[in-house]
Every structure is written in C-alpha cells, then in structure tokens.
Amino acid sequence: MDAADNTRLARLERQIAFLYRHFGLDPQLADAFAAAGDMPPEFTEALRKQNLILAIKIYRQVTGVGLAEAKDAVERLARSV
Q1: Which of 30, 57, 68, 72 is deepest in the core (most CB within 10 A)?
Q2: What is the pTM of this model?
Q3: What's the domain of life for this entry (predicted)?
Q4: DSSP per-residue codes, 40-72
C-alpha cells in the first residue's frame, strides 16, 4: 500500500468509527452481525420475537460454538434489534 491508500484507509476507519458513535452501536457487534447473516431465517425470526432460547439453539447448531459464546453473541444481537 502506498501513502494515498493509507490515508484513504485511515479516513474510512474514522468515518466508520463516527457512524458507530452516532448510532450508539458497539463496534464488537460487527463480527456478530456477520455471523447472523449466515443464519437461517428461523434465527432472525426468533430474535425478532425475543425467543432467545431458540435463537441460541439455532446459533449453536449453525456455528458449532459452545453455549456461553452462543448466549453472548445472541444477547448482543438481541439488544441491537
């Protein structure tokens, strides 16, 4: 990368940080949302209905993560919905 690319990248990172602050979002959620995009529609529906137990179950089935990690991820997503 050259200096122009570094400048452009730094500017984009500042803009993204501004958007996170402006909308009151936790930047850590970016990874969780990426994972949610790979989830079946039943997962999104469970989140929408605040059925966290079902959402955690689906999350674990799809990702293969443990209960604690799935619970944390689903709870973060539920707070942002």
Answers
A1: 57
A2: 0.58
A3: Bacteria
A4: -HHHHHHHHTT-HHHHHHHHHHHH---HHHHHH
